Amino acid sequence: MISFTTKLFTVVLVTIFFYPDKLLAQKLNSDSSVCLEIKGKVLNVGNKSSDTYKAELIYYNNVINNETISATKSFKFDLKRDAIYSIRISKKGFITKLISIYTRIPEDETNVYRLDFETELIEEHLSKKLDADALDFPITIIYYDEKADSFYYNEEYTNNIKRCIYNVKVVRNKI
Prior knowledge:
By secondary structure, the protein is of the alpha+beta class. The protein has a single domain (about 5-20, about 35-75, about 85-145, about 160-165), classed as Immunoglobulins (Immunoglobulin-like, Sandwich), CATH 2.60.40.10. The chain is about 20% helix and about 35% strand. It contains 4 helices and 9 strands. The protein has helices spanning about 5-15, 20-25, 130-135, 155-165; strands at about 35-40, 50-60, 60-70, 75-80, 85-90, 95-100, 115-120, 140-145, 150-155. The strands form 2 sheets. The chain has a 6-stranded mixed sheet. A 3-stranded mixed sheet has the order 4-1-7, with no helix packed on it. Helix 1 runs antiparallel to helix 4. The longest helix has 12 residues, at about 5-15.
């Protein structure tokens, strides 16, 4: 019998990119213009300036920017349009967090968008009760939402992956 987690991961892999027909035609080199300035802060990695965490910007499985940041500071990356990036956030004693970003925007769009977020890392000693397979997936997928004319995260995906990580079962009752 296929588990709920396996089914979810299958669905995620199929839908992780919202426009698979466009994804297959994507060029390896993205447009050279920056379309998104993304800024993030990790809240629970210490409060002394000597406490640090690592943020890496990944493009096609290559780390293209690597920063060691004071726990009291934020990281910032400028992302080019029409590309797929990941941000990997890590600190010793915590589980690494992965965030996926898809920067496809309409061709006629010239704005540079900004997205600020805060997050927390999960302490390693708490991971024994978590789904190790689910932890390998990005915690969220950020994409351009044409209706909102801004970058946003996929709420449904994020809620589902968190449910899997924390082994939460959804019970649907018929009324």
